[in-house]
Specification:
Length: about 350
């Protein structure tokens, strides 16, 4: 037993570069796991820096200095973001307030439809099952109300944290972009001398993360705007709020689309009932989801997502459980990192294995 373990360890970890890569991954994993709360502004800044690196690098290739390019891109991005939020946030807040006002009526309508199911589906659904389901929903709603109350009591602390983010994040993004070369050189000094394998994995992941963040932001924007336009065209209540939810649902591959379907269907059902308008709405919504999954995602992530959907869902559940929102957001790049590390590791060790077999 111990001889087999020692042989496996000697075979897999005899290369110093493999050991260095393994230790770097462990250090990064435990640093984010234990210090995720403290590192949250840094992670936000890194995500925005990756997003804005593409326009900054394009301006630099045109002969513009990196400092001026960074200033123009960061100020322009902040200006567009502030203008968008000044329009979106008040309207979304107003629609959210109306939704909370209409929520009791929607719940009561849902009760009415559920109580009719035993008559529509005799032998398949019993009245006891419906009552148990309604009791569970009531408990969930009460728990949600308690959570919202506790959230409102802590809103002052959250407001202070938000103000800190609004100051720190733009500053860090600016200097991450402006001093990219100096920061990279400084980080390299902390790496071990045997770092060819680390460099190989890093170069592959650096391109994938940049493409992923840029593609994900574009996907959120396109899906959200198209959903809002379709919902407004149908005259659906809370069109902006639901469009934002549909856009943000793409952050969670496969699972998000299934979850966000419920509020869209409930609002449409409350507004029109089982009518042709409701059917047309769900048909249009299904077309949006189909185009997103079969056209937009392959177009935006053709060079990033080379993973089986089962692996992606497992990565979302695993990394989301470990790191929360950022684990969900970076689930695909993290899964790609695991795959890239395994490929580099196997490639590095293949000559040794071939020698042993011969």
């Amino acid at each position: 037993m111990f001889d087999w373990l020692r042989k496996w360890y000697t075979n897999k970890f005899s290369d110093p570069q493999v050991v260095a890569l393994f230790l770097m991954l462990l250090l990064g994993f435990f640093s984010i796991y234990w210090l995720s709360g403290m590192l949250a502004p840094v992670l936000v800044s890194i995500a925005f820096a990756y997003l804005l690196e593409w326009p900054v690098s394009r301006l630099c290739r045109m002969g513009v200095s990196r400092s001026f390019s960074t200033s123009v891109v960061v100020l322009g991005f902040m200006g567009v973001l502030i203008l968008a939020l000044m329009w979106v946030v008040p309207l979304a807040w107003y629609q959210g307030r109306n939704l909370l006002r209409d929520l009791p009526q929607m719940i009561e309508l849902g009760r009415t439809y559920l109580l009719e199911l035993p008559e529509l589906l005799p032998g398949m659904v019993s009245e006891e099952q419906i009552l148990l389901m309604m009791h569970t929903v009531d408990e969930r709603v009460m728990a949600f109300g308690r959570d919202m109350l506790s959230l409102s009591l802590a809103s002052i602390v959250d407001l202070v944290a938000l103000l800190i983010y609004l100051v720190l994040v733009p500053v860090m993004v600016f200097f991450m972009l402006k001093d990219k070369a100096q920061l990279t050189t400084g980080l390299i000094q902390f790496l071990p001398n045997e770092r060819q394998l680390i460099t190989q994995v890093w170069h592959e992941m650096n391109v994938q993360i940049m493409n992923y963040i840029r593609g994900k932001m574009l996907e959120i924007l396109i899906v959200g705007v198209c959903s809002y336009a379709v919902f407004s065209l149908f005259g659906l209540n809370y069109a902006l709020l639901l469009g934002m939810l549909v856009g943000l649902s793409v952050l969670i591959p496969y699972i998000g689309a299934a979850v966000v379907t419920l509020p869209v269907a409930l609002v449409g059902l409350f507004q029109w009932g089982f009518s042709p308008e409701f059917g047309y709405l769900m048909l249009a919504y299904g077309i949006i989801q189909a185009l997103d999954g079969n056209v937009l995602v392959p177009l935006l992530f053709s060079e990033v997502v080379d993973l089986n959907p089962v692996y992606i869902i497992i990565a979302v559940l695993f990394f989301g459980g470990l790191f929360g929102f950022w684990g969900i957001f970076f689930a695909i790049p993290l899964a790609s990192l695991v795959k890239a590390t395994a490929n580099a590791w196997s490639t590095r060790l293949r000559p040794v294995d071939q020698v042993e077999t011969t």
